[in-house]
Design a protein that fits this description.
The chain is of the alpha+beta class. It is built from 9 helices and 16 strands. The protein has 2 domains: 158 residues, Alpha-D-Glucose-1,6-Bisphosphate, Chain A, domain 4; 152 residues, Alpha-D-Glucose-1,6-Bisphosphate, Chain A, domain 4 (2-Layer Sandwich), CATH 3.30.530. The strands form 2 sheets. The chain has an 8-stranded antiparallel beta sheet. The protein has an 8-stranded antiparallel beta sheet with strand order 9-10-16-15-14-13-12-11. β15 and β16 form a beta hairpin. The longest helix is centred in the last third of the chain and has 17 residues.
Length: 322
């Protein structure tokens, strides 16, 4: 069953959306927790959303852009006040400018999504609360109800796809200077975080194709610290490495670093790693890479980077299983 109702109540300054679906609460929650699934319904069909950040935890932040039929964009963000998986989450929902900063010319609202089991599956109740009647009237006049109705109606198709998430590493070109790499791995959230931050684990899996070792593994554990990784080919003796700085860290969910190939001049990349727990002791790895130019993005992707990452992630699963 699709959306049951979307109703507004000016007296309580709320807009309530209710939907019921023949799937489990965990499956319904996953549609909101996984940014790739969320993108398929957050935004009307003519204005699909792209999430460039989805840090679903208390104190976290999600950022997205909805792109119109002529390439125009409407940006927004969520600030998470509470997350109780898989039962509810509460965010402050705001508009953003083209640089991702808060657009204070448009009102912010508060949104709570609640999920519960039903005899036939599960239900979500989304309640948006506005700061004032003026704010409510402004957003309703902008087409909020119509847009929400069209957007949430797409959840049927998302939830009908009950196949397991693709396990292989995938790359998505977001725009000229951004690419997103995703992979679901077997391993609990804290395990996968440790695998990214403990030298003795990193040296076992972050090796790319067979035949390489990591003789240098200096990890940044606090914001402002530098890291350095170096790899060596056992047969040929070839060697290369990367170094950078830890800019942000929220264990065990998110880390932002710079990255520069050792010995190469010019600007490097900015890498945002987000880990999301998935059912069955699995974790979704989401790596958003910001390149200084389209040319550098294409050059790096053409090196076989994604194939190397797939080999590494497969090795990580074996390390965690052992």
């Amino acid at each position: 069953m699709p959306i049951v109702s979307i109703t507004s109540d000016p007296e309580s300054l709320t807009l309530t959306a209710i939907g019921e679906y023949p799937v489990s609460v965990e499956r319904l929650w996953a549609a909101w927790a996984d940014p790739r699934q969320l993108e398929r319904f957050w935004g009307p069909p003519a204005w699909p959303a792209t999430f460039t950040r989805h840090d679903m935890q208390a104190g976290g932040r999600s950022e997205y852009a909805m792109t119109g039929p002529n390439g125009e964009q409407a940006r927004g963000y969520w600030l998470y006040d509470a997350v109780d998986a898989p039962r509810s989450f509460t965010v402050r929902d705001g508009f953003a400018d083209e640089d991702g900063n808060a657009n204070e010319d448009l009102p912010m609202s508060r949104m709570k999504m609640s999920f519960e089991a039903t005899p036939s599956g599960s239900r979500f109740v989304g309640v948006t609360t506005f700061a004032s009647i003026e704010a409510m009237e402004q957003l309703v006049a902008m087409g909020m109800i119509e847009g929400l109705t069209l957007a949430l109606a797409q959840m049927d198709d998302v939830l009908a796809d009950l196949r397991e998430s693709t396990r292989a590493t995938q790359v998505e070109i977001v725009d000229d200077t951004h690419a997103r790499v995703t992979r679901e791995v077997r391993g609990a959230l804290t395990q996968v975080w440790r695998a990214h931050h403990e030298p003795e684990l990193i040296k076992q899996w972050m090796l790319g194709p067979d035949g390489w070792t990591m003789p240098v593994c200096i990890v940044a554990t606090e914001v402002g610290q530098s890291y350095r990784y170096e790899w060596e080919n056992e047969a040929e003796g070839a060697r290369f490495g990367f170094e950078g700085e830890l800019l942000e860290s929220t264990a065990p969910r998110r880390a932002v670093t710079t990255e520069q190939m050792i010995g190469m001049g010019g600007p490097g990349t900015r890498n945002e790693l987000v880990l999301t727990p998935r059912p069955g002791s699995r974790t979704q790895i989401d790596l958003l890479i910001e390149y200084p130019s389209k040319e550098l993005r294409d050059t790096i992707l053409a090196t076989g980077m994604v194939d190397g990452m797939e080999a590494s992630y497969a090795r990580m699963e074996a390390v965690l299983a052992g």
